[in-house]
Amino acid sequence: MANKDAIVRQVHGSLEHEPRINLHRHPIKIGLAEGAVVLEGEVESVAAKKLALELAGAVDGIRGVVDRLRVVPAERRGDGAIRDSLCGFLLQEPEFRNCAIRVRTKGSMETLREVPGKPGGEIEVAIEDGVVTFEGAVISHSHKRIAGVLAWWTPGCRDVVNSLDVAPPEQDSDDEVVDALRLVLEMDPLVQADQVTGSCRNYVVTLEGCVRTEEERRQAELDAWSLFAVDNVVNRIEVRA
Fold first, then answer.
1. Which end of the chain has fewer CB atoms at under 10 Å, N or C?
2. What is the pLDDT of residues 95-115, one digit of tens each?
3. What is the pTM for the complete model shown?
4. CB-CB contact of 238 with 210 (8 Å)
């Protein structure tokens, strides 16, 4: 393995040259453990988090990346408040109306909704130090991605660990990403979904269209970054007043 200090310097250089990762405002601690790069700290957005992991993983001579990055929330909230808001989102979302919802609190499981007969999946939610963890199973990759986006939308969320299975099993694809993106943009009240189109190739999303404000443009991009397994987002949306 190459010199450890040299690898750390190379990772730091890669992160420093990415404008969406602001190391001066949000420093990232870079370490090595058994050949893997360890990234630890807070970053500005889910985009910065995913880009940091991708750039670190592209450095020669490492065996993997250990993710200990958290996103700085717009609002600091306790786990209980995050849990209540997220569970409210899940219970109200029509896509999950046939899905059982359960929440784990202090080692015990509470059922918020039980679905008789054959439920359309089962979502188990836990929150610790602002990190949302999903377990269970849903009926499609789109449902898995929507759950993850709802978590990222929840005030106070610092990270999402989406371990939902898809049952029955089905292969994921770029088309599945596009389907989820369309649903998420339609769900987002801050975006005019009919003004934005999205495509996906090798889990890189490209956004196009015209919106009224720069904030709407940024929000559409953030929605795309929040989708599970999306590695990068190319934002070609134009702002026209």
1. C
2. 999 999 999 998 899 999 999
3. 0.94
4. yes
